[in-house]
Design goal:
single chain; four-stranded antiparallel beta sheet; globular; binds adenosine-5'-triphosphate; binds magnesium ion
Length: 256
């Protein structure tokens, strides 16, 4: 219980089914604040499903998710974003019809104070807020070296640039917990290294992260804590060195 109180994120007996398929079985875990955690497991193990349950895209049939001790039961995804959960997707999710800056601004709207009616009426407070957000958006793009592309349609971006834009949108609202679904998937070795450095910087600034990743070298080199899923069950969790030496993990995953 004391552990639960000091945890940033808690999952309690989470079960998720799709028809007859049990995607997550009795998952209970604690994630302390300030850690870069890796979520690993073979294809189909339930990694993306777990992130979807945490951020509210999937409602589990049983169990609960708590953020800073607060139950998120029945809290929709957009409210969870306001409470401090942000994510990136296994397949980058950007609005193709919008330009780079407008896509980024979607991540900043969790911070707006004017509200929908203020914006509809285009009040002076709404215009001020919009200007402020655009400035902040451009600053963020600069941080991720995307500033010269701000007016380009996202269709023109490379995968690396789209991954960067999705990451900058996720951190725009200054989340308490960042969920990253294979942020390095499909990237070249050099891009993967650059992404790792960016994530290391974010962790250095105190951001907590859960990252789905298949590359064990990357997990070993950078993360603080590892969660292992196998056939929807939490097989093991612990520091990377312990996980790498865990016989159960080796036979279930690393040996495959
Ligand atoms: N929306 C859905 N409807 C039906 N089944 C689903 C759905 N989402 C996931 N599943 C199933 O749940 C299981 C876990 O899938 P999930 O995508 O969470 O795995 P994963 O660990 O992320 O795999 P990968 O490494 O391939 O991304 C799989 O058997 C998958 O087919
Ligand atoms: Mg997945």
């Amino acid at each position: 219980m004391a552990e639960a109180a000091s945890s940033l994120l808690v999952l309690r007996d989470v079960c998720l089914r799709f028809g007859g398929l049990q995607a997550l079985m009795d998952i209970s875990l604690h994630v302390p604040a300030g850690l870069w955690s890796a979520l690993i497991g073979p294809n189909g193990a339930g990694k993306t499903s777990m992130l979807n349950v945490i951020c509210g895209l999937y409602a589990p049939q049983a169990g609960d998710v708590l953020l800073e001790g607060r139950s998120l039961y029945g809290v929709p995804a957009y409210e969870r974003a306001v409470l401090g959960l942000a994510r990136t997707f296994q397949t980058v999710q950007l609005v193709q019809e919008m330009n780079v800056l407008d896509n980024l601004l979607l991540g900043l709207h969790t911070q707006g104070r004017v509200g929908v009616f203020g914006h509809l009426l285009r009040s002076s407070a709404s215009r001020r807020e919009e200007r402020k957000m655009q400035e902040k958006g451009l600053e963020l793009l600069a941080r991720f070296s995307l500033e010269t592309l701000w007016s380009r349609p996202v269709l023109e971006l490379s995968l690396w640039q789209r991954k960067l834009l999705e990451l900058s949108r996720a951190v725009a609202g200054d989340p308490k917990l960042l969920l990253l679904d294979e942020p390095m998937g499909g990237l070249t070795m050099a891009e993967r290294e650059s992404m790792a450095l960016l994530l290391q910087d974010l962790r250095g600034q105190g951001m907590s992260m859960i990252m789905v990743e298949h590359d064990m070298d990357m997990v070993m080199a950078h993360t603080d804590h590892v969660l292992v899923l196998h056939h929807g069950r939490l097989l093991a969790q612990g520091p990377p060195r312990e996980i790498q030496a865990d016989p159960q993990v080796i036979s279930a995953y690393l040996g495959e």
